[in-house]
Design brief:
The chain is α/β, with parallel strands linked by helices. Helices cover about 35% and strands about 20% of the residues. Its EC number is 6.3.2.9.
Amino acid sequence: MSKIVVLGGGESGVGAALLAKHKGFNVFLSDQGQLKPEYQQSLLDAQIPFEQGMHSMDNILDAQEIIISPGIPEKSPIVQEIKQKNISLVSEIEFASRYTPAKIIAITGSNGKTTTTLLTYHILKEAGLQVGLAGNIGHSFAKQVMENQHDYYVLEISSFQLDRCFHFTPDVAVLLNITPDHLDRYEYQFENYIQSKFRIFQNAKPQTTCIFWSDDPVWQSHANSIPHQAQVKTISFDNEQADMLIRPNEIKGSSHFQLDLNEAPLKGPHNAINMSAAILAAEAVGISAESIHQALHTFENAPHRLEPCGSWKGIQFINDSKATNVDAVFYALNSFKQPIILLIGGVDKGNEYEVLDDLVKEKVKGIICLGTDNQKLVKHFGPICSSLFSTDNLQAAVEKSLEWGQAGDIVLLSPACASFDLFKNYEDRGNQFKAMVKTLTDGK
């Protein structure tokens, strides 16, 4: 019996272990941290041996294949040892995709992939299809494959997951955009990150639909990375020949699909791209224009992505905690016409902030830097924003926004950075922001 080791005991790792056991493998799971009680119980119920708080290398290195958590970096010592032994090292996505006949829509991009994934899933589900939501969102893809209840999957795929995909072949592959992100995982080389994202197309067949935003300069310089035999669908603001053409007030499809952007559930030019991608993906699996229109009008976006979270004396508070890179902040700033007080900061991932300069000068009346080390932000934005405040305290940040704000202003938490200097993750950051806004504005 072949042995499979799973590294990482989170949602995807435990799901992969359960599927591997279900398929008859000898399975062992190892996590250097502590497993949640519910995950421990799932493994115990399935009689899968596991360890936590350590990696016992002898037990790991005698595996025929290792399924690795996307959170474990390529340069970590354990990955280097595995590679020296030439043991197959794959992601949960690669492993689980071997065992399902379901059609797969896979979505990646530096920004917008969660929104696009949720919208695509919503459209398919509203159309009556048996569809699963997985990848970077929802429940474990592998566990859902084991339960075999779905005919379709919509997967949000990160570059880390794609790095360990070799034969994964989605039926519909979507690449929304590529801007510098996670460069600390890619030797600070943007090209390495680009190549990782383009892996979503690497196994495209003649029947594969490849969807992308063709105005993206990165795509334009790497277009030959998409296999020529695939069915290509493009989104553009400029190219009249695109399959989805975005105009100031509408999205117009070559399939005669039209959407009035004034009535769309998502606002801003970046969301026009996201909606276009979801529409094309839904069309690719046979969903009618009528069904797509109906589903669009019942869609609600995910928390922490341009999420309204209260108002006080005409000041609106927006939680965009999921904006963990500079490009996401660029899109967020472009989504509002009102004056903005911007809360930014956290753990810098090699960010270059120059792309925000013109928008900051045009739209931002004040910047509040929220993090344990704000020096880079203060140095960059100090000369171009007259009102700047630096703090490592969320309450102080929100209080300062109340002090600066006037009726008609937007207070926007859009950090451009990771969250784990002051918070557990971006969800925790967003939830604490919403709670603090409520605390400080209630009764005032």
